[in-house]
Amino acid sequence: MDIGKLPNDVLKEIILNKFEIKNEDVLVGPSLGEDCAAISFGEDVCVFTTDPITAATKNVGELAVNINLNDIASSGTKPLGILITILIPPTESIDNIKKIVEEINRTCNKFGVDVLGGHTEVTDAVNRVVISVTAIGKGKKNRFVKTGGAQIGDDVILTGYAGLEGTSILASEYEEYLKNKLDSDIIEKAKNLLKDISVVKVAEIAVEYGVTAMHDVTEGGVLGAIWEIAEASNKGIYIIKENIPVLEETIKICKIFNIDPYKLISSGSMVITCKDGVGLCTKLKENGINAEVVGKIIEYDRILESNSSIEKLSQPYSDEIYKVSIKEDNI
């Protein structure tokens, strides 16, 4: 099998179809594209998400917290706490574990989130540190947002930039290699994109403005997240590729590694649907957040327009970042 998340069709057939929700208080269970499970508590809703870090070896504590808080934020609720599992290979140093824990603590403090518990273990089942985080959030039920809430006629908005997280990871992991191919200022800009990886503020503004669906962009990149929001909503979608914002440093790094920036892991970006996309983009830009209308929710079909040509928007497969990992022996 390819490295990365299971393809959505396989995930649905062999995993998701095996589970049936038995409790009426469960509002959202496991389903394609949904970032969070949700449980009803009267007028409130409690949301849960879990994700590991596997594509990076640097800044993993910061990444692990951010990607899970992003999931919680994309549901329109406030992140409250996290539980952490850290699997440590026998060859790992205590100093690196300390560094990871410091990153986790610093990032949690930034967002007022508590570490509620977890598990740490040294095991030869892994050959590098693997962190898996479960995040918990709480909010009002009437402000809860699903990935699958998009409606026909909605505008599709992308915040941030395509390939943002992947660009930062690649610049950090392969810095020495890239020094022979790019100016140092481009590499530094790319590494510093990690500071833009949170979408908590984006979600707060979007929910206040009024949206129908939100989905943070992770593995599979921007095009993968766009497909998932259409799939979860059981709707069609029409996307204009040239409207998707992408940074110069992302374009240059992706060209070097011969990968597609639109299919590159991109925490720090959010796909949003709402009735007035231009108005929401204006509001976000007033708050220093880049946002562009990139398409429309339609009744049928998943369509990608590029240079005036039309192609089918397909389900996401293995993220582009894993193609770079395959080439590591040649770098």
Low-confidence stretches: 326-331
CATH architecture of the largest domain, by name, is Alpha-Beta Complex
At the fourth level of CATH, the homologous superfamily of the largest domain is PurM-like C-terminal domain
Relative helix content: 25-40%
Major sheet: size, sense and barrel closure?
A: 7 strands, mixed
Q: Return the CATH class of the largest domain.
A: Alpha Beta
Radius of gyration: 19 Å
Structural class: alpha+beta
Mean pLDDT reading: 93
Strand order of the largest sheet: 8-10-7-11-9-12-13
The helix-strand sequence is HEEEHEHEEEHHHHEHEHEHEEEH
Distance between the termini: 24 Å
Strand content: 25-35%
How many domains make up the 3D coordinates? 2
Overall number of strands? 13
What would the principal axes of the Cα set say about the shape? Answer: globular
CATH topology of the largest domain: Phosphoribosyl-aminoimidazole Synthetase, Chain A, domain 2
Q: What's the helix count?
A: 11
Can you characterise this structure?
The strands form two sheets. The chain has a seven-stranded mixed β-sheet with strand order 8-10-7-11-9-12-13, with helices on both faces. A six-stranded mixed β-sheet has the order 1-2-3-6-4-5, covered by helices on one side. With 331 residues, it is of the alpha+beta class. The chain folds into two domains: 8-143, PurM-like, N-terminal domain (60s Ribosomal Protein L30, Chain: A, 2-Layer Sandwich); 147-330, Phosphoribosyl-aminoimidazole Synthetase, Chain A, domain 2, CATH 3.90.650.10. The relative contact order is 0.17. Helices cover 33% and strands 26% of the residues. The longest helix has 18 residues, at 94-111. A hairpin with a 2-residue loop joins strand 2 and strand 3 (44-53).
